[in-house]
Structures are given as C-alpha cells and as structure tokens.
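Predict structure. Chain length: 82.
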Amino acid sequence: MKAGYNLAVVMLEKESTLEQAVRHVAEAKRFVAEQRPRIEKLKASGISTLDAEQTLDVFATTLKLLEDHEQYLRKHALKNTN
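Prediction complete.
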C-alpha cells in the first residue's frame, strides 16, 4: 500500500459517523452541482441528455437520502448529549 493511502485510511477510521455523513453530503452536493452544467452543455450541443438527466435524478435522490441521514444523526447526537 502507498503511504498516502494508509494516511487516508487512518483519517477515515477516526472520522465519526456524523463527520462521515457530512463529508458524503458535501461530496454528493459537489458532484450534482458539477453535473448540471455538463448536461446543459451537452443539451446545447444537440446531444441527447436523457440518460444523463435520469442518472442525475438518481444522484439527486441519493443526495436527499444522504441529507436526511445526516439530519437524523444530528438529532440523535443532540438527544445523547442532553
């Protein structure tokens, strides 16, 4: 294994479930945001974007689920601290 990979694994092992959820939401938001202009560019070029739009819809739905999970973890964490 590469040294950089080992460091990433160690960092992720120390990451709490909530921290991991926050990171996943941020990554998914970035991915969805990056795809929208790409689809628009394809559409403007006259290329069919049906598959890309359907796939993006799946990613957007997944993002919503990730956000819901993050909110659940936040509420659960608050209940455990009170």
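Summary: Helices lie at 3-14, 17-44, 50-81.
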